[in-house]
Amino acid sequence: MNDAARLPVARDMDRLAGVEIPNPHVRAWVAECAAMCQPDRIHVLNGSAAERQELLQQAVAEGVLLPLNQQKLPGCYLHRSNPNDVARTEQCTFICTPSERLAGQTNNWMDPKQCYAMLGQLFSGSMRGRTLYVVPFVMGPLGSPLAKVGVEITDSIYVAISMGVMTRMGDCAWKELQGSDEFTRCLHSVGDCNPERRYICHFPLDNVIWSFGSGYGGNALLGKKCLALRLAGWMGYQQGWMAEHMLLMGVTSPDGAKTYVAAAFPSACGKTNFAMLIPPEKYLKAGWKINTLGDDIAWMYVNKHDGRLYAINPEAGYFGVVPGTSYQTNPNAMAIIQRDTIYTNVALLPDGDVWWEGKTETPPAACIDWTGQPWTPNCGRPAAHPNSRFTAPMRNNPVLDPQADDPNGVPISGIIFGGRRTKTIPLVFQAFNWIHGVYLGATLGSETTAAATGQLGVVRRDPMAMLPFCGYNINYYFTHWIRMRKQMKDCPRIFHVNWFRKGDDGKFLWPGFGENMRVLKWIVDRCKGQGYAAETLLGWMPRPEDIDLDGLNLPLGRIEAAQSIDLEEIKTEVLTQTELFMKLAGELPKELIFLRELLISRL
Ligand code: GTP
Ligand code: SPV
Ligand code: MN
Known about the structure:
Blueprint: H1 3-6, H2 9-16, H3 24-37, E1 41-44, H4 49-61, E2 66-67, E3 77-79, E4 93-95, H5 100-103, E5 108-109, H6 112-123, E6 131-139, E7 148-154, H7 157-166, E8 168-169, H8 171-177, E9 184-189, E10 199-203, E11 208-212, H9 217-220, H10 223-239, E12 242-244, E13 247-252, E14 258-264, H11 271-275, H12 281-286, E15 289-294, E16 298-302, E17 309-312, E18 317-321, H13 331-336, E19 342-344, E20 347-348, E21 354-355, E22 367-368, E23 374-375, E24 389-393, E25 410-418, E26 428-430, H14 434-442, E27 445-447, E28 459-461, H15 474-487, E29 493-497, H16 516-527, E30 534-535, E31 540-541, H17 556-563, H18 567-584, H19 590-602
Parallel strand pairs: 1-6, 3-19, 4-5, 4-10, 7-9, 9-11, 14-25, 25-29
Antiparallel strand pairs: 2-3, 6-7, 6-8, 10-11, 12-16, 13-14, 13-15, 16-17, 17-25, 18-24, 19-24, 20-21, 22-23, 26-29, 27-28, 30-31
Residues 245, 267, 296 line the site of manganese (II) ion.
C-alpha cells in the first residue's frame, strides 16, 4: 500500500475506534500522532498490575525482555539494548525555542518550525507494523500542587513498561488531569534506532517533547530528564520554583531530629549511592538513620507559611547505575534490585542470575556479556556495559522515607554540590553564604562518565550538575538561583564534596559509600549551627579532627591529603573556569563574576 492510501481520515478514525481516552485534548492529540506515525494498533495503558504482567509477557514473547531466574530474582528481566544506544546522547539533544538566545550557550538549538517539520518526516509512518502505546503518567505525588501530568506516546514496549516503574502511571493520570489541556505531550519512537537519525527535542514554549531514534533511558523515558528537568526547569524559572538534578534524603540524628538535604552530583557521580547509604555500625548504634526520598531529581519551592525551601521527588522509581553496586558498596540498592527489576545491558550467568563489574570480587568463570556474546574474565571486554542500569520501583527501598509521597514535600536544610575529581578539590567544605554557594554550584567541575556518550574522564564544567539538563539559557538559570534567595526567610546551607580524590598511589583517599556518613554528620551539624569549621580560601572547612574517623582504618595523613588545598592547583582551577565564564560572558550574573574576583584576591 502506498503512503497516500494509508492517510485518509477514515483510517485515522478506525485507528482510534474502541480506544478509550477520557480527556478530549489527549484524545485529539493521540489521533494526530496516530495519523502521522500510522501504527497498526493503539494500546492505552491503565497502570494495573494485571496489565503490567501482560506487557511483560508480551515483551518476553517479542524477545525484548529475557526472564531471569525467577526463584532468585522474582519479577526480574534482562533487556539488551542496541549496542549503539546505551547512554544519553547530548549532541542529539535540542532545545527548540523561537529565539536561539533562550536556549543559551550550553544547549543545542533548533528552530521549532524546522524541527517539527524534520522530525515529522521521521515520525511519518514510523510505527507501521507496531503498537502505539499511550502512557499517561504523573510526575510528583498524586494530588500534590506541584505534580505535573504527562502523556507519552511510544512504540517501545520496554519504554512503556519502564514508565510504569519510574512514574505514577495509568488511570491515576486521568484523575489528576480531569478535563484540562495542561499536560506535557511526549512523542517517542525508536524508529530504526539509527544514531544518524537520533533527535531528543524539547519545545519549552509548547510543553512538547519529540524523541526519535533511541530507546535509552534519558532519551526515551520522557518523564525523567526531558520533562522533570528540562521542561520543568523552564516552568520553574517562570513560576518561581526549581527543578534540579538532585537526590533527596532524610538524616535522623541520635536526638531524633530529622534534617533533609538535597545533593547535586553529575551523572554517575554518586547520587543513588549517597541517597540510600547505610551508616557505619557505630552510627547506627548511636541512633543515626538515613532515609531516601529520591535519587535523581528534586522539585523545590518556597513554602509561604514558613519561608523555607521544600522539595519533592517527582519520580516513583530508580534508573540506577549497575556497575560498582554490591553488598559492600550499596546493600540497600542490592535489596531493591532483587525483585521487580529490569536490568539493562548487564551480563547473564548460566543459572539465569546477573553479573556486572564490581558485583563480586571474583568474576564468574564464564557468562554471556551485555551484547549476548560468551564472556570469560580474560577476554579483554567488560561483561556489563559501564552504563548498564537497573529500573526498580522506589517501593522496594527498605529505607524509603515515610514522606516520599507527601504532597508538600520536606523542608531542606542543606544543599550539597559534588563532582568526580581525581585532584585539586577537597573532600568537603561549606560555602560562606547562599550566593557563594551558587558560585560553587555554577563552577562545579567533574570528570565525564559513561552516562553520556563521548570521551570519558575529562574534567568539564557541569554547573549544578545540570549542564545536560538545563532546558533554557543557563545565565537565566543562574539568575534564578540567585533570586530564589529573596523568597526565603532562611535558606539552606550550601556545601561542596568530592568522594573521588586520589592519592599519589592512584587510590581513593576517602573510602566513600557508607563512610560518607562521617562527612554528612559534619554537614548536618553545620546546618544546625553546630560543629567547628575553619575559614579557608575555599570556604568553611572542618579540620581533620572535626571529621570523626573513629573505627575507620584511615591514617590521619590520608584525610589531611583529602582535605588539602594546593594553591597552584586552585589557581589552575580558577583559570579553567575562565572557559565557562568567557562562553557565558555578557549575560552572566555579575554576582558570579565578583565572587570569582574575590576568590582570586584571596589567592
Ligand atoms: P545518575 O543516575 O547517572 O544520575 O548517577 P548517580 O549520581 O546516581 O550515580 P551512582 O550513585 O549510581 O554512582 C555512580 C558510580 O559511582 C557507581 O559505580 C558507584 O559505585 C560509584 N560511587 C558512588 N558513590 C561513591 C563513593 O562514595 N566513592 C566511590 N569511590 N565511588 C562511588
Ligand atoms: C543520568 O544520566 O544523569 C541519569 C540516567 O540519571 S538518564 O536517565 O539516562 O539520564
Ligand atoms: Mn541523573
